[in-house]
Design brief:
By secondary structure, the chain is an alpha/beta fold. It contains 18 helices and 18 strands. α15 links the parallel β15 and β16.
Length: about 525
């Protein structure tokens, strides 16, 4: 279906990859992984013909239909959600463009126009629309959203409409670049289950290790300019990569030891007439060796110590007899909750159950209609939402924003931390006003870590982070001396950090005094990800 051979691509003298080979067969599920900036999206663009390789070949079966979901959405004009999901939006644009060209040429009655019109009519088939609505519902849309202009919605919701369009088309090869970035947990689970039964092949770039573990059968890792193939899911790949490195490193060490022994013998006896021929023989043996290059260890997460925050009281935050509603919709009635100092608590529950609302009540971002919120002694509360762009100074650079948050930090230390959160080299001198939404989210995360509150409230902190950066964040938060309450659909992140679980459903917040495994056992949930949304 798809074959890449001996691919090479360089930018400004820096080689991203060389002699890269990749094969995707019909029905296969393949992940393309590697650190940020390694060239994953570049390979996608080369496959799609949007970019030229320096060397190598890309062969695709002539009749293979390819569907591609990029990370960022294109302009949607005045089209509705259903027009995007059915593909009519694209055909409307093509039809309008064709008509304009033909009118400019002074003719309309030509086969070119009727071909475009025929495609558009085919997409008006009621079966196509019914399937598009099914995909949209699975991805979280309500019936009332179908006829809304897409431009009224956020970028994440627009991406879901484009994803629905791809699922309606059912391409032979589905290429997905970070498909889970814009999905909440319920739509992610639906999408994951849908792909398990998808008949076509899938080539994906993803930072979601659970998603890859559930779906992929092989992994191609861009490693030090090479594309290395591994069989199995993402967890299998991690084990195999480490085992391969250790095997190569042991072979290198053994050869170096042998070379050293041979060289020492030659040095000791080359001037002794009776041993000179043996010494020369040892030197020739070294020359004949097929030298093993010292292997480069797989990249490890960046480690940094979060400064100790000021010590707070034993009761970090209390909610007492809280009532909260959005208009007539009651979310909580008589809610009581105490967060103790030092706890690392994850909030789980069905989509729309009130997890983010609870976090905002704890943060003081929302005022309850009844009841009281009490912050503990010496409480310094930090609320990390996914929409904190307004807190950045638009006239600051990335690095100056961090240095203002932590004046005792040296610039080289700030740059090191920023590098681990995907701000590379000269990117640290970009103005914050030109950053993307994901970049602003990551920068705010860094600001929290360099000047931490003693109560940290975080809503989906791993969004827009690659796998290595998520590991860096886990390491930092494991050593954090404050109180942490967070929402996440990243099971790996939860298992590493949570010491307590609060299950939010039906206006109640039920506490489980134990880690994620304890919650799985006590809740009776068989599947870890399904447990996140259990009623």
């Amino acid at each position: 279906m798809l074959s890449i051979r001996k691919l090479k691509k360089s930018y400004g003298g820096q080689t991203l990859f060389e002699d890269a080979d990749l094969q995707v067969n019909y029905g296969e599920r393949v992940a393309l992984v590697g650190p940020n900036g390694a060239g994953k999206s570049t390979i996608f663009r080369i496959i799609l013909g949007e970019e030229e390789a320096d060397k190598g070949e890309v062969d695709r079966d002539e009749y293979t239909l390819v569907g591609f979901l990029p990370q960022e959405s294109e302009d949607v004009g005045d089209y509705t959600v259903i027009e995007i999901a059915t593909g009519r939006a694209g055909m409307l644009a093509e039809l309008e463009d064709t008509l304009k060209k033909l009118e400019d040429a002074g003719t309309v009655d030509v086969p070119q126009y009727y071909e475009a019109q025929g495609k558009f009519d085919a997409l008006n088939d009621p079966k196509v629309e019914a399937k598009a609505k099914e995909m949209l519902r699975g991805l979280g849309y309500s019936h009332d959203d179908f006829d809304r202009p897409a431009k009224e919605m956020s970028g994440g919701w627009i991406m879901r409409a484009h994803l629905a369009r791809l699922l309606v088309i059912e391409p032979d090869l589905l290429m997905l670049d970070e498909p889970t970035n814009h999905l909440d947990l319920m739509s992610l689970l639906w999408f994951q289950n849908y792909l398990k039964n998808y008949s076509g092949a899938i080539l994906m770039i993803s930072h979601d290790r659970e998603f890859m573990d559930e779906l992929v059968e092989s992994v191609h890792d861009i490693e030090h300019g090479k594309l290395v193939h591994y069989t199995g899911n993402y967890s299998d790949f991690i084990e195999q990569r480490q085992a391969a490195y250790e095997q190569k490193n042991n072979a290198y060490k053994n050869q170096q030891k042998q070379i050293k022994e041979l060289q020492e013998f030659a040095n000791k006896f080359r001037s002794v007439s009776s041993k000179a021929s043996q010494a020369q023989s040892k030197l020739k043996e070294i020359e004949r060796m097929d030298k093993i290059e010292k292997p480069i260890a797989p990249k490890k997460p960046f480690r940094f110590q979060i400064p100790d925050p000021p010590r707070g009281g034993q009761k970090a935050i209390e909610l007492i007899d809280i009532d909260f509603a959005y208009g007539k919709h009651k979310v909580y009635e008589g809610l009581n909750l105490t967060i103790e100092r030092g706890e690392r608590t994850v909030l789980v529950g069905p989509n729309g159950s009130g997890k983010s609302t609870l976090l905002k009540l704890l943060a003081g971002e929302l005022e309850p209609q009844k009841g009281e919120r009490k912050a503990g002694h010496n409480a310094k509360i930090g609320y990390f939402s996914q929409h904190r762009a307004a807190t950045l100074n638009p006239n600051n650079t990335v690095v100056s924003e961090v240095l203002e948050a932590a004046p005792t930090l040296r610039e080289d230390e700030a740059r090191g931390i920023l590098g681990s959160f995907m701000f590379r080299k000269e990117e640290v001198y970009k103005m914050t006003k030109v950053l993307s939404g994901g970049e602003k989210s990551r920068l705010n995360l860094v600001k929290f870590l360099v000047d931490p509150p003693n109560i940290l409230l975080m809503d989906e902190p791993t969004t827009h982070l690659d796998i290595l950066t998520v590991e860096s964040l886990i390491i930092a938060l494991e050593n954090y001396q404050g109180t942490l309450v967070f929402i996440s659909h990243d099971v790996h992140f939860i298992k590493k950090l949570a010491t307590d679980v609060i299950h939010v459903a039906n206006g109640e917040a039920k506490r489980f005094h134990g880690d994620w495994d304890y919650f799985i056992e006590k809740s009776g949930a068989g599947d870890e990800r399904a447990a996140l949304t259990a009623e």
